[in-house]
Design brief:
Layout (H helix, E strand, L loop, with lengths): L4 H10 L8 H21 L8 E6 L2 E3 L4 E8 L6 E9 L5 E2 L2 E6 L4 E8 L5 E13 L6 E3 L2 H7 L4 E5 L8 H12 L11 E8 L11 H7 L3 E7 L4 E7 L7 E2 L2 E2 H18 L3 E7 L3 E8 L4 H9 L11 H11 L5 E5 L4 H8 L3 H5 L3 E7 L2 H7 L6 H26 L3 E5 L4 H14 L4
Parallel strand pairs: 2-10, 13-16, 13-18, 18-19, 19-20
Antiparallel strand pairs: 1-3, 3-7, 4-6, 4-8, 5-7, 8-9, 8-10, 11-12, 14-15, 16-17
Helix pairs in contact: 1-2, 4-6, 4-13, 6-7, 6-13, 11-12
Protein name: DUF58 domain-containing protein
Keywords: Membrane, Transmembrane, Transmembrane helix
Length: 437
Protein backbone atom coordinates (compact mmCIF):
# COMPACT_ATOMS: atom_id res chain seq x y z
CA UNK A 1 0.00 0.00 0.00
CA UNK A 2 1.12 3.54 -0.61
CA UNK A 3 0.99 6.84 1.25
CA UNK A 4 0.35 10.37 0.04
CA UNK A 5 3.97 10.86 -1.06
CA UNK A 6 3.73 8.97 -4.39
CA UNK A 7 0.89 11.31 -5.39
CA UNK A 8 3.11 14.29 -4.61
CA UNK A 9 6.01 12.83 -6.62
CA UNK A 10 3.68 12.03 -9.52
CA UNK A 11 2.34 15.60 -9.48
CA UNK A 12 5.85 17.04 -9.59
CA UNK A 13 6.77 14.75 -12.48
CA UNK A 14 3.56 15.57 -14.31
CA UNK A 15 4.35 19.29 -14.13
CA UNK A 16 7.54 18.69 -16.14
CA UNK A 17 6.03 16.54 -18.88
CA UNK A 18 5.34 19.50 -21.19
CA UNK A 19 9.03 20.33 -21.57
CA UNK A 20 9.79 16.96 -23.16
CA UNK A 21 9.45 16.48 -26.96
CA UNK A 22 7.35 13.31 -26.44
CA UNK A 23 4.90 14.14 -23.63
CA UNK A 24 3.18 10.73 -23.60
CA UNK A 25 6.48 8.94 -23.35
CA UNK A 26 7.54 11.33 -20.56
CA UNK A 27 4.28 10.61 -18.72
CA UNK A 28 4.94 6.89 -18.98
CA UNK A 29 8.42 7.49 -17.59
CA UNK A 30 7.01 9.39 -14.60
CA UNK A 31 4.59 6.55 -13.90
CA UNK A 32 7.38 3.98 -14.08
CA UNK A 33 9.64 6.00 -11.78
CA UNK A 34 6.89 6.51 -9.17
CA UNK A 35 5.89 2.84 -9.30
CA UNK A 36 9.51 1.75 -9.03
CA UNK A 37 10.17 3.93 -6.01
CA UNK A 38 7.01 2.63 -4.31
CA UNK A 39 7.91 -0.98 -5.07
CA UNK A 40 11.45 -0.49 -3.77
CA UNK A 41 10.19 1.15 -0.59
CA UNK A 42 7.69 -1.68 -0.09
CA UNK A 43 10.40 -4.32 -0.51
CA UNK A 44 12.56 -2.55 2.09
CA UNK A 45 9.68 -2.44 4.60
CA UNK A 46 9.93 -5.05 7.35
CA UNK A 47 6.95 -7.28 8.08
CA UNK A 48 5.13 -5.94 11.19
CA UNK A 49 3.67 -9.37 11.84
CA UNK A 50 6.98 -10.40 13.42
CA UNK A 51 6.49 -8.02 16.34
CA UNK A 52 5.48 -9.57 19.67
CA UNK A 53 2.77 -7.84 21.71
CA UNK A 54 1.91 -7.98 25.41
CA UNK A 55 -0.03 -5.82 27.88
CA UNK A 56 0.18 -4.50 31.42
CA UNK A 57 -1.66 -1.92 33.48
CA UNK A 58 -5.10 -1.32 34.94
CA UNK A 59 -7.61 -4.14 35.16
CA UNK A 60 -10.20 -2.61 37.52
CA UNK A 61 -11.59 0.93 37.49
CA UNK A 62 -14.45 2.74 39.13
CA UNK A 63 -16.82 4.48 36.74
CA UNK A 64 -15.60 8.03 36.18
CA UNK A 65 -11.95 7.25 36.96
CA UNK A 66 -9.10 7.10 34.45
CA UNK A 67 -6.59 4.28 34.17
CA UNK A 68 -3.69 3.42 31.91
CA UNK A 69 -3.02 0.26 29.91
CA UNK A 70 0.46 -0.29 28.47
CA UNK A 71 1.00 -2.11 25.18
CA UNK A 72 4.51 -3.58 25.01
CA UNK A 73 5.97 -4.11 21.53
CA UNK A 74 8.97 -6.41 21.26
CA UNK A 75 11.10 -6.61 18.12
CA UNK A 76 12.88 -10.00 17.95
CA UNK A 77 14.28 -9.31 14.46
CA UNK A 78 17.25 -7.33 13.25
CA UNK A 79 15.06 -4.89 11.30
CA UNK A 80 14.10 -1.40 12.34
CA UNK A 81 10.47 -0.28 12.21
CA UNK A 82 8.64 3.00 11.78
CA UNK A 83 5.26 2.05 13.15
CA UNK A 84 1.76 3.42 13.39
CA UNK A 85 0.15 1.49 16.26
CA UNK A 86 -3.65 1.63 16.51
CA UNK A 87 -4.95 0.20 19.79
CA UNK A 88 -8.72 -0.17 19.35
CA UNK A 89 -11.12 -0.64 22.30
CA UNK A 90 -14.88 -0.71 22.63
CA UNK A 91 -16.23 2.86 22.29
CA UNK A 92 -17.52 2.96 25.88
CA UNK A 93 -13.98 2.33 27.16
CA UNK A 94 -13.05 5.93 26.26
CA UNK A 95 -9.57 4.97 25.01
CA UNK A 96 -7.20 7.79 24.00
CA UNK A 97 -5.15 8.35 21.94
CA UNK A 98 -6.42 6.28 19.07
CA UNK A 99 -3.01 5.73 17.45
CA UNK A 100 0.68 6.00 18.34
CA UNK A 101 3.72 6.73 16.14
CA UNK A 102 6.89 5.03 17.33
CA UNK A 103 10.33 3.98 16.06
CA UNK A 104 11.35 0.46 17.03
CA UNK A 105 14.98 -0.43 16.52
CA UNK A 106 16.40 -3.91 16.06
CA UNK A 107 15.91 -6.28 19.01
CA UNK A 108 14.39 -3.49 21.09
CA UNK A 109 11.23 -2.99 23.10
CA UNK A 110 8.83 -0.06 23.09
CA UNK A 111 5.85 0.77 25.28
CA UNK A 112 2.80 2.78 24.26
CA UNK A 113 0.24 3.90 26.84
CA UNK A 114 -3.50 4.21 26.30
CA UNK A 115 -5.64 6.15 28.78
CA UNK A 116 -8.96 4.48 29.63
CA UNK A 117 -11.88 6.60 30.88
CA UNK A 118 -14.98 4.35 30.74
CA UNK A 119 -18.46 5.74 30.31
CA UNK A 120 -20.31 2.54 31.24
CA UNK A 121 -20.07 -0.16 33.88
CA UNK A 122 -19.09 -3.71 33.06
CA UNK A 123 -16.25 -5.35 31.17
CA UNK A 124 -14.59 -3.13 28.58
CA UNK A 125 -12.36 -5.31 26.36
CA UNK A 126 -9.54 -4.40 23.99
CA UNK A 127 -10.68 -5.17 20.44
CA UNK A 128 -7.70 -5.18 18.09
CA UNK A 129 -4.15 -3.88 17.75
CA UNK A 130 -3.33 -2.90 14.16
CA UNK A 131 0.33 -2.42 13.18
CA UNK A 132 1.34 -0.43 10.11
CA UNK A 133 5.05 -0.37 9.19
CA UNK A 134 6.32 2.37 6.86
CA UNK A 135 9.21 2.03 4.44
CA UNK A 136 12.43 4.03 4.82
CA UNK A 137 11.29 6.48 2.11
CA UNK A 138 7.75 6.81 3.45
CA UNK A 139 6.23 5.93 0.06
CA UNK A 140 4.72 2.57 1.02
CA UNK A 141 3.67 0.64 4.09
CA UNK A 142 2.82 -2.88 5.15
CA UNK A 143 -0.11 -3.51 7.48
CA UNK A 144 -1.13 -6.60 9.42
CA UNK A 145 -4.39 -8.00 8.08
CA UNK A 146 -7.44 -8.27 10.35
CA UNK A 147 -7.30 -12.02 10.95
CA UNK A 148 -3.63 -11.90 11.81
CA UNK A 149 -4.09 -8.76 13.90
CA UNK A 150 -6.80 -10.51 15.93
CA UNK A 151 -4.43 -13.40 16.58
CA UNK A 152 -1.60 -11.03 17.59
CA UNK A 153 -3.70 -8.84 19.88
CA UNK A 154 -3.12 -9.74 23.54
CA UNK A 155 -6.45 -10.14 25.38
CA UNK A 156 -7.17 -7.50 28.00
CA UNK A 157 -10.31 -6.48 29.82
CA UNK A 158 -10.90 -3.61 32.21
CA UNK A 159 -13.74 -4.21 34.66
CA UNK A 160 -15.57 -0.98 35.41
CA UNK A 161 -17.16 -0.91 38.86
CA UNK A 162 -20.08 1.30 39.99
CA UNK A 163 -19.28 4.84 41.07
CA UNK A 164 -20.65 4.38 44.59
CA UNK A 165 -21.25 8.10 44.93
CA UNK A 166 -23.65 7.35 47.77
CA UNK A 167 -20.64 6.69 50.02
CA UNK A 168 -20.78 10.41 50.79
CA UNK A 169 -23.66 9.50 53.14
CA UNK A 170 -21.57 6.95 55.06
CA UNK A 171 -20.34 9.26 57.86
CA UNK A 172 -23.90 10.31 58.66
CA UNK A 173 -25.27 6.76 58.58
CA UNK A 174 -22.40 5.32 60.64
CA UNK A 175 -22.94 8.06 63.22
CA UNK A 176 -26.59 7.03 63.47
CA UNK A 177 -25.49 3.43 63.76
CA UNK A 178 -23.10 4.25 66.60
CA UNK A 179 -25.90 6.07 68.37
CA UNK A 180 -28.13 3.07 67.82
CA UNK A 181 -25.47 0.71 69.16
CA UNK A 182 -25.01 2.91 72.20
CA UNK A 183 -21.44 4.02 71.51
CA UNK A 184 -22.31 7.70 71.97
CA UNK A 185 -25.37 7.51 74.23
CA UNK A 186 -26.47 5.47 77.21
CA UNK A 187 -27.71 2.10 76.10
CA UNK A 188 -31.33 1.45 76.83
CA UNK A 189 -33.79 -1.41 76.69
CA UNK A 190 -35.84 -1.69 73.56
CA UNK A 191 -37.68 -4.17 71.41
CA UNK A 192 -35.38 -6.40 69.43
CA UNK A 193 -32.29 -5.75 71.57
CA UNK A 194 -30.03 -8.25 73.27
CA UNK A 195 -28.18 -8.20 76.58
CA UNK A 196 -24.73 -6.58 76.40
CA UNK A 197 -23.19 -5.99 79.85
CA UNK A 198 -23.70 -4.85 83.45
CA UNK A 199 -22.60 -1.49 84.81
CA UNK A 200 -23.22 0.76 87.78
CA UNK A 201 -26.36 2.81 87.88
CA UNK A 202 -26.05 6.50 86.99
CA UNK A 203 -28.63 9.24 87.30
CA UNK A 204 -30.94 9.16 84.31
CA UNK A 205 -30.93 5.38 83.76
CA UNK A 206 -34.27 3.66 83.34
CA UNK A 207 -35.10 2.00 86.66
CA UNK A 208 -36.66 -0.87 84.72
CA UNK A 209 -33.18 -1.88 83.55
CA UNK A 210 -31.92 -2.49 87.13
CA UNK A 211 -30.67 -6.05 87.65
CA UNK A 212 -31.76 -6.74 91.22
CA UNK A 213 -29.87 -10.01 91.57
CA UNK A 214 -26.58 -8.44 90.51
CA UNK A 215 -27.36 -5.48 92.77
CA UNK A 216 -27.77 -7.79 95.75
CA UNK A 217 -24.48 -9.55 95.06
CA UNK A 218 -22.47 -6.35 94.68
CA UNK A 219 -24.15 -4.19 97.30
CA UNK A 220 -24.44 -1.50 94.61
CA UNK A 221 -27.16 -0.63 92.11
CA UNK A 222 -26.36 -2.34 88.80
CA UNK A 223 -28.20 -1.94 85.51
CA UNK A 224 -28.27 -4.03 82.41
CA UNK A 225 -27.19 -2.50 79.09
CA UNK A 226 -28.59 -3.63 75.77
CA UNK A 227 -27.60 -3.38 72.18
CA UNK A 228 -29.42 -4.03 68.93
CA UNK A 229 -29.31 -7.60 67.78
CA UNK A 230 -26.52 -8.47 65.37
CA UNK A 231 -26.10 -11.16 62.74
CA UNK A 232 -29.42 -10.23 61.16
CA UNK A 233 -29.86 -10.96 57.45
CA UNK A 234 -30.44 -8.32 54.78
CA UNK A 235 -31.20 -9.35 51.18
CA UNK A 236 -30.97 -6.79 48.36
CA UNK A 237 -33.10 -7.89 45.39
CA UNK A 238 -32.54 -5.88 42.21
CA UNK A 239 -35.15 -5.95 39.47
CA UNK A 240 -33.15 -5.84 36.21
CA UNK A 241 -36.17 -6.15 33.91
CA UNK A 242 -37.40 -3.63 31.39
CA UNK A 243 -38.57 -1.11 34.01
CA UNK A 244 -34.99 -0.76 35.29
CA UNK A 245 -34.00 0.86 31.98
CA UNK A 246 -36.26 3.89 32.51
CA UNK A 247 -34.14 6.99 32.94
CA UNK A 248 -34.68 8.95 36.13
CA UNK A 249 -32.77 12.17 35.69
CA UNK A 250 -29.60 11.45 33.77
CA UNK A 251 -29.24 7.74 34.59
CA UNK A 252 -31.28 4.54 34.29
CA UNK A 253 -33.24 3.40 37.32
CA UNK A 254 -30.86 0.47 37.86
CA UNK A 255 -27.95 2.84 38.54
CA UNK A 256 -29.81 4.44 41.45
CA UNK A 257 -30.75 1.01 42.78
CA UNK A 258 -27.11 -0.08 42.71
CA UNK A 259 -26.04 3.04 44.61
CA UNK A 260 -28.70 2.41 47.27
CA UNK A 261 -27.82 -1.28 47.56
CA UNK A 262 -24.12 -0.53 48.05
CA UNK A 263 -24.78 2.05 50.76
CA UNK A 264 -27.21 -0.23 52.56
CA UNK A 265 -24.80 -3.16 52.37
CA UNK A 266 -21.91 -1.12 53.73
CA UNK A 267 -23.91 0.16 56.70
CA UNK A 268 -25.29 -3.33 57.39
CA UNK A 269 -21.76 -4.70 57.31
CA UNK A 270 -20.68 -2.20 59.98
CA UNK A 271 -23.75 -3.17 61.99
CA UNK A 272 -22.62 -6.80 62.03
CA UNK A 273 -25.40 -8.06 59.77
CA UNK A 274 -25.08 -10.45 56.84
CA UNK A 275 -25.91 -9.11 53.38
CA UNK A 276 -26.99 -11.16 50.36
CA UNK A 277 -27.71 -9.97 46.82
CA UNK A 278 -29.95 -11.29 44.06
CA UNK A 279 -30.35 -9.56 40.68
CA UNK A 280 -32.88 -11.08 38.31
CA UNK A 281 -35.35 -10.50 35.50
CA UNK A 282 -36.43 -13.55 33.50
CA UNK A 283 -33.43 -15.34 35.00
CA UNK A 284 -30.99 -14.74 37.82
CA UNK A 285 -28.25 -12.38 36.58
CA UNK A 286 -26.12 -12.14 39.73
CA UNK A 287 -26.13 -13.63 43.19
CA UNK A 288 -23.94 -13.06 46.24
CA UNK A 289 -24.58 -15.06 49.40
CA UNK A 290 -22.95 -15.60 52.77
CA UNK A 291 -20.95 -12.37 52.58
CA UNK A 292 -19.62 -10.73 55.72
CA UNK A 293 -16.62 -8.71 56.78
CA UNK A 294 -14.10 -7.25 54.40
CA UNK A 295 -15.06 -9.50 51.50
CA UNK A 296 -18.60 -8.13 51.30
CA UNK A 297 -18.11 -4.89 49.38
CA UNK A 298 -15.58 -6.28 46.83
CA UNK A 299 -17.88 -9.19 46.06
CA UNK A 300 -20.90 -6.93 45.69
CA UNK A 301 -19.31 -4.39 43.36
CA UNK A 302 -17.81 -7.17 41.27
CA UNK A 303 -21.21 -8.82 40.90
CA UNK A 304 -23.00 -5.52 40.18
CA UNK A 305 -20.48 -4.23 37.63
CA UNK A 306 -21.72 -6.17 34.56
CA UNK A 307 -25.43 -5.73 35.31
CA UNK A 308 -27.50 -3.94 32.68
CA UNK A 309 -31.25 -3.67 32.12
CA UNK A 310 -32.88 -6.45 30.15
CA UNK A 311 -35.70 -6.00 27.66
CA UNK A 312 -37.71 -8.82 29.18
CA UNK A 313 -40.45 -8.59 31.81
CA UNK A 314 -39.33 -9.60 35.29
CA UNK A 315 -40.41 -13.04 36.43
CA UNK A 316 -41.34 -12.31 40.05
CA UNK A 317 -42.30 -15.94 40.59
CA UNK A 318 -38.67 -16.83 39.90
CA UNK A 319 -37.41 -13.99 42.12
CA UNK A 320 -39.59 -14.96 45.10
CA UNK A 321 -38.74 -18.65 44.71
CA UNK A 322 -35.03 -17.88 44.67
CA UNK A 323 -35.31 -15.72 47.81
CA UNK A 324 -37.29 -18.38 49.67
CA UNK A 325 -34.86 -21.07 48.58
CA UNK A 326 -31.74 -19.26 49.76
CA UNK A 327 -33.07 -17.45 52.85
CA UNK A 328 -34.31 -19.92 55.45
CA UNK A 329 -34.18 -17.54 58.41
CA UNK A 330 -36.31 -14.44 58.74
CA UNK A 331 -34.63 -11.60 56.84
CA UNK A 332 -35.16 -8.07 55.64
CA UNK A 333 -35.89 -8.30 51.90
CA UNK A 334 -35.28 -4.99 50.10
CA UNK A 335 -36.79 -5.18 46.62
CA UNK A 336 -35.54 -2.45 44.29
CA UNK A 337 -38.16 -2.17 41.58
CA UNK A 338 -40.62 0.24 39.99
CA UNK A 339 -44.14 0.97 41.24
CA UNK A 340 -45.60 0.14 37.86
CA UNK A 341 -49.14 -1.26 37.99
CA UNK A 342 -48.70 -3.59 35.04
CA UNK A 343 -45.47 -5.23 36.21
CA UNK A 344 -46.31 -5.44 39.92
CA UNK A 345 -50.02 -6.06 39.65
CA UNK A 346 -49.68 -9.08 37.38
CA UNK A 347 -46.28 -10.33 38.50
CA UNK A 348 -45.50 -9.46 42.12
CA UNK A 349 -48.81 -9.13 43.97
CA UNK A 350 -50.01 -12.73 43.34
CA UNK A 351 -46.81 -14.22 44.82
CA UNK A 352 -46.07 -11.57 47.45
CA UNK A 353 -48.01 -13.20 50.35
CA UNK A 354 -45.60 -16.16 50.30
CA UNK A 355 -42.68 -13.81 50.82
CA UNK A 356 -44.30 -11.45 53.33
CA UNK A 357 -45.37 -14.38 55.52
CA UNK A 358 -41.78 -15.40 56.17
CA UNK A 359 -39.76 -12.19 55.83
CA UNK A 360 -39.89 -8.46 56.42
CA UNK A 361 -40.30 -6.88 52.99
CA UNK A 362 -39.40 -3.37 51.88
CA UNK A 363 -40.21 -2.27 48.32
CA UNK A 364 -37.87 0.59 47.41
CA UNK A 365 -38.86 2.58 44.35
CA UNK A 366 -37.70 5.80 42.75
CA UNK A 367 -40.14 8.65 42.48
CA UNK A 368 -40.54 9.57 38.82
CA UNK A 369 -40.30 13.39 38.53
CA UNK A 370 -42.14 13.31 35.20
CA UNK A 371 -45.40 12.45 37.00
CA UNK A 372 -45.02 15.52 39.20
CA UNK A 373 -44.37 17.68 36.15
CA UNK A 374 -47.48 16.35 34.41
CA UNK A 375 -49.67 16.93 37.44
CA UNK A 376 -48.27 20.42 37.91
CA UNK A 377 -48.99 21.42 34.31
CA UNK A 378 -51.36 24.39 34.18
CA UNK A 379 -54.33 23.56 31.90
CA UNK A 380 -53.83 26.45 29.49
CA UNK A 381 -54.82 24.48 26.39
CA UNK A 382 -56.09 21.06 25.36
CA UNK A 383 -52.60 19.53 25.31
CA UNK A 384 -51.93 20.70 28.86
CA UNK A 385 -55.25 19.26 30.01
CA UNK A 386 -54.43 15.87 28.54
CA UNK A 387 -50.97 15.98 30.12
CA UNK A 388 -52.39 16.77 33.54
CA UNK A 389 -55.02 14.04 33.28
CA UNK A 390 -52.32 11.55 32.27
CA UNK A 391 -50.22 12.58 35.28
CA UNK A 392 -53.17 12.24 37.65
CA UNK A 393 -53.99 8.81 36.23
CA UNK A 394 -50.39 7.65 36.62
CA UNK A 395 -50.25 8.92 40.20
CA UNK A 396 -53.54 7.20 41.08
CA UNK A 397 -52.29 3.91 39.59
CA UNK A 398 -49.12 4.27 41.61
CA UNK A 399 -51.08 4.95 44.82
CA UNK A 400 -53.26 1.93 44.15
CA UNK A 401 -50.18 -0.29 43.88
CA UNK A 402 -48.84 1.14 47.16
CA UNK A 403 -52.12 0.40 48.93
CA UNK A 404 -52.12 -3.15 47.60
CA UNK A 405 -48.57 -3.72 48.81
CA UNK A 406 -49.34 -2.23 52.22
CA UNK A 407 -52.31 -4.56 52.70
CA UNK A 408 -49.88 -7.47 52.49
CA UNK A 409 -47.75 -6.03 55.31
CA UNK A 410 -45.11 -4.68 52.94
CA UNK A 411 -43.43 -1.37 53.62
CA UNK A 412 -43.12 0.88 50.56
CA UNK A 413 -40.52 3.59 50.07
CA UNK A 414 -41.05 6.08 47.24
CA UNK A 415 -38.21 8.62 47.20
CA UNK A 416 -36.58 11.05 44.80
CA UNK A 417 -33.36 10.03 43.10
CA UNK A 418 -31.09 12.46 44.99
CA UNK A 419 -32.11 11.10 48.42
CA UNK A 420 -33.00 7.54 47.45
CA UNK A 421 -29.88 5.74 48.80
CA UNK A 422 -30.02 7.71 52.05
CA UNK A 423 -33.73 7.02 52.59
CA UNK A 424 -33.35 3.28 52.01
CA UNK A 425 -30.60 3.09 54.63
CA UNK A 426 -32.66 5.18 57.05
CA UNK A 427 -35.49 2.67 56.83
CA UNK A 428 -33.05 -0.15 57.61
CA UNK A 429 -31.73 1.73 60.66
CA UNK A 430 -35.26 2.44 61.82
CA UNK A 431 -36.25 -1.22 61.51
CA UNK A 432 -33.08 -2.22 63.35
CA UNK A 433 -33.74 0.25 66.16
CA UNK A 434 -37.29 -1.04 66.67
CA UNK A 435 -36.28 -4.70 66.43
CA UNK A 436 -38.34 -5.45 63.32
CA UNK A 437 -35.60 -7.02 61.21
Amino acid sequence: MITWRPALLFGLGLSTVWIWPWPWLALLGVVVVVAGVCLLDLLLTADPGAIRLSRAGTTVLRLGETGEVQLVLGNPTGDAYRLDVRDAWTPSAGATPYSHRIELTAEATAVVTTAITPTRRGDRPAVRVTLRAYGPLGFAFRQVRHARADAMTPPWTVRVLPRFESRKHLPEKLAKLRTLDGATTIRGRGQGTEFDALREYVVGDDVRSIDWRATARRNDVVVRTWRPERSRRVVCVLDTGRTSAVRIGDEPRIEHAIEAALLLATVAQHAGDQVDLIAADERVRAQVTRSTGRTLLPRLVDALAPLHPATAETDFELVISEVLRTERKRSLIVLFTALEPGALGEGLLPVLPRLAARHTVLVAALHDPVIGELVGTAPADATAVYRRVAGLRAREDRDRVVRSLTRHGVRVLDAAADVFPSRVTDVYLELKATGKL
